[in-house]
Design brief:
Chain lengths: ~300, ~525
């Protein structure tokens, strides 16, 4: 491997990490927000797929990818709200509802998405951060998508809001102790429903990225479990927004190994490298199950840790 | 019209004066509350004078909690009124109580575990700003704390604080919210004697200065005499007596509180009929982790001889729970061995039967029984797979019910129906059921944890008598209890468990409450 090839691989890894991490980042932030309120939403995978389909359809009909992103957020908000409301009924389990929602979301997306598999919709633009580099392959690798920047801003905003605003503290109280929240006069159920709905909207935006930027088309195999892996990612990030960002980048980098090697012509073990994110998920789950820290940081009302 | 106006003005003037004095006066008149067929409160009167500590004394189930919950607005009283500073007030919810400046420190803390002390104080304010300027909030908090003689760390998460620190933080929270009528619900049940002294001493001083009025719920005479100005005694939902603390002797208060039965259960003179026998239970260097990974047991060594009760005292959270769980096989040991009669003991079903090691863990409904199974089935859990309750792989339901009926009668389990699911029984009856099961066959080693926690007088007496009887029959008894009085009453030898280690050991004859208390606090 020559020096320029190494630079290309590294550049492709960085670019790929950013690209692959974007949906992880949005779904993880959405899941983090939901879990901070004390519920777990396993339906984000379904929201991701429905968001991808909705974004593609709206972008195709209106010609505006940003309207597509808004539509994806709307789909996510609606499904998140549904999850939140259903879980507010007595004796309804949030994990079971989440799995049902996952199937509902993918089912709806496949049903309404059939006519959009062939046509081409307007895609999101990219920001050429690598414009100054001569090597076109490297420059291409460093094009950054606007949604990633939005996700970074969102992570920083959530970090600030959870620590320094009243709604942030209210959400943390609700997720940590229902009894304490009631004693403070916090309307526990509305707070949780709202957190789940907003978390759903974020996951929807993650879906828009899949269909409108990378891979950039709508088909039924678009998501490969990112919505579920995000749950592991949130545990790995110990429910912290900035750590969600780093964890998403790490998962993204793992996912980018295969394509990066392929870009310089190494295609041996391509499928093996593509499995890296899944192996990482498995390792993360084992490691965090063994660490005491995750249990200390986990919201107290979460069914996952109780 | 003009008289009404004059009255309103007078009230306003009075309230102005009271506000300057701060400490409010609270009066409860003729309060009654019924739950189904149970008359929980029966026309109870109560007067807490401004700037005093008023003790509310009574046994479990006497109506103390019900009374306070009616004042706080958790329950709506059937009859009666609350008068605050000579003005009748309607309190429909805890929020109303808070707006009137009535605050309560609950037995289960209401702090949010993952929030820091500072965050807990700020979020409790009714007017938390949308965006929190932490620098300003810190200045305010520190200025507030500078005026208080109690100190708590503001930057540690509430979940990491010791019980005493949590209690202090709860108290400071009420004062920070400017609540001037404080209700403390058995505040010392989780504190070391020194911490109790600090917290109650502080409250008393605040009352003396006229800053607060306090209603102190307790069942400890020592606290009443050391810290309260006046006392009201409840029994079975009625006010049976009260007055200035100086004018009532402990004996009078005890007599009023418990009614006819006056003798303390398991009186102190009750010695074993003979000297203790050989070592029956030996714990050698037990090390185990707690739920959150930190070491909960850090090398526990102890021996219990036959015909001896060894009491392990300590403040909750110092490894008691983990010790019991290790003995019953609910928690893996990281190091150390358990020996019964010199033989290594592994907590398997077979070993429990072979060594006749039995016990009553705390919260038996969770730890030693199956809540949805019936009383008869729970009573058979130790022996259902052996004759006479089993024939081959078949259960003999008739024999199981017959055995259950016999035990229900002997241990006075209520209701006397073997087919009731266990979860419908009261706490005391669940305790009796598990104890009946554990003692239904001869026992050589008995491990009991907080056996009388939350029980009424009669159940307490029965269970303590049963523990003493087992010792007299020759069993080795390990009693783990957070109630020091219980240990002083029952144990022949007393150990203190602090931070996962045995830090103090003393024969009962030489036991000194203060010294034990100091060791409990880790000094």
């Amino acid at each position: 491997m020559s020096e320029s090839e190494l630079a290309i691989v590294l550049g492709a890894m960085v670019g790929g990490a950013i690209r692959v991490s974007t949906p992880f980042l949005f779904v993880a932030l959405g899941e983090m927000l939901t879990e901070r309120g004390g519920r777990i939403n396993l339906g984000l995978e379904g929201i991701l797929v429905l968001g991808a389909m909705g974004a593609y359809a709206v972008s195709y009909h209106t010609g505006s990818p940003w309207l597509g992103v808004a539509a994806a957020a709307g789909c996510g908000l609606a499904l998140g709200l549904l999850h939140g409301l259903l879980c507010s009924l007595p004796r309804v389990n949030d994990i079971a509802i989440g799995i049902a929602l996952m199937m509902l979301g993918t089912g709806l997306a496949f049903f309404f998405g059939k006519p959009y598999i062939q046509p081409t919709a307007e895609r999101l633009p990219s920001i050429p951060l690598g414009g100054w580099i001569e090597d076109p392959r490297l420059a291409r690798a460093l094009e950054v998508n606007p949604l990633f920047l939005l996700g970074v801003l969102l992570a920083v905003f959530l970090y600030w809001a959870l620590g320094r605003t009243r709604p942030g503290l209210v959400l943390r109280v609700t997720g940590d102790s229902t009894a304490a929240a009631r004693a403070l006069g916090i309307p526990v159920t509305p707070v949780r429903v709202l957190a789940t709905a907003i978390g759903g909207a974020m996951a929807g935006i993650g879906g828009a990225f899949l269909s409108l930027y990378y891979p950039g088309s709508w088909n039924e195999g678009l998501s490969s479990g990112q919505g579920l892996m995000a749950v592991a990612l949130v545990i790995f990030a110990r429910w912290h927004p900035l750590r969600c960002l780093w964890a998403a980048l790490l998962f993204g980098a793992a996912g980018a190994i295969g394509p990066a090697l392929q870009s310089i012509g190494i295609s041996q073990g391509y499928y093996f490298f593509n499995a890296a994110p899944y192996v990482l998920t498995l390792l993360v789950m084992i490691a965090s199950a063994r660490s005491g820290r995750a249990r200390i940081d986990a919201p107290g009302e979460l069914a996952l840790v109780r | 019209m003009s008289t009404a106006l004059a009255a309103a003005l007078a009230t306003a003037a009075h309230r102005g004066a009271a506000a300057a004095l701060r400490a409010p006066k609270l009066e409860v008149a003729g309060m009654s509350k019924r739950f189904g067929s149970l008359q929980a409160l029966d026309k109870v009167d109560l007067l807490v004078r401004p700037g005093t500590v008023h003790a509310l004394l009574g046994e479990n189930g006497a109506g103390k909690s019900t009374l306070v919950k009616c004042i706080m607005g958790f329950y709506r009283a059937d009859e009666g009124s609350v008068v605050l500073d000579d003005r009748e007030v309607a309190i429909a919810s805890p929020r109303d109580a808070r707006a009137l400046g009535i605050g309560m420190v609950y037995q289960h803390f209401t702090l949010v575990p993952s929030l820091t002390g500072a965050e807990n104080l700020v979020i409790a304010r009714a007017d938390t700003p949308l965006v929190i300027d932490w620098r300003r909030e810190r200045e305010r908090l520190e200025a507030f704390l500078a005026r208080m003689p109690l100190q708590v760390p503001l930057d540690r998460r509430a979940g990491e604080l010791a019980a005493g620190e949590k209690q202090k933080l709860e108290l400071l929270k009420l004062l920070y919210l400017d609540q001037r009528f404080l209700i403390l619900d058995e505040p010392t049940s989780v504190l070391t004697p020194d911490e109790a002294l600090e917290v109650l001493g502080f409250v008393r001083r605040m009352a003396r200065e006229g800053a607060v009025s306090v209603l102190l719920i307790t069942h400890k005479f020592r606290e009443v005499q050391a810290f309260a100005d006046e006392v009201t005694i409840l029994r079975r939902g009625r006010r049976v007596g009260g007055g200035a603390v100086g004018e009532l002797s402990t004996d009078t208060m005890a007599a009023l509180m418990v009614g006819e039965r006056q003798t303390a259960p398991g009186s102190r003179g009750d010695r074993a009929p003979g000297p203790p026998g050989p070592v029956a239970l030996e714990l050698a260097g037990l090390v185990a982790e707690g739920d959150r990974g930190a070491l909960a047991l850090d090398g526990v060594n102890l021996e219990v001889r036959a015909r001896e009760i060894v009491g392990v005292a300590g403040v909750s959270g110092n490894g008691q729970k983990e010790l019991v769980e290790c003995l019953f096989g609910q928690r893996p040991l990281r190091d150390g061995r358990i020996f019964v009669k010199g033989e290594p003991f592994e907590p398997t079903r077979e070993a429990f039967a072979r060594f006749a090691l039995r016990g009553l863990p705390e919260q038996p409904l969770e730890n030693a029984a199956v809540r949805r199974l019936t009383v008869a089935e729970n009573l058979a859990l130790r022996s259902f797979d052996r004759p006479p309750l089993a024939r081959g792989i078949w259960l003999d339901r008739k024999a199981i019910r017959a055995r259950a009926k016999e035990l229900i009668e002997r241990y006075r389990i209520r209701p006397p129906d073997p087919d009731t699911p266990l979860e419908f029984l009261s706490g005391g009856n669940v305790q009796r059921t598990v104890l009946a099961r554990e003692l239904s066959e001869p026992v050589e080693v008995l491990v009991v944890a907080n056996p009388c926690f939350g029980l009424d007088f009669a159940s307490t007496a029965d269970i303590r008598a049963e523990i003493l009887a087992q010792r007299d029959r020759g069993a080795a008894v390990l009693l783990i209890s957070e109630d020091l009085d219980e240990i002083l009453e029952l144990a022949d030898r007393i150990l203190v468990l602090s931070a996962g280690k045995i830090v103090h050991a003393v024969e009962r004859a030489a036991a000194d409450r203060t010294a034990i208390g100091r060791h409990m606090a880790g000094h």
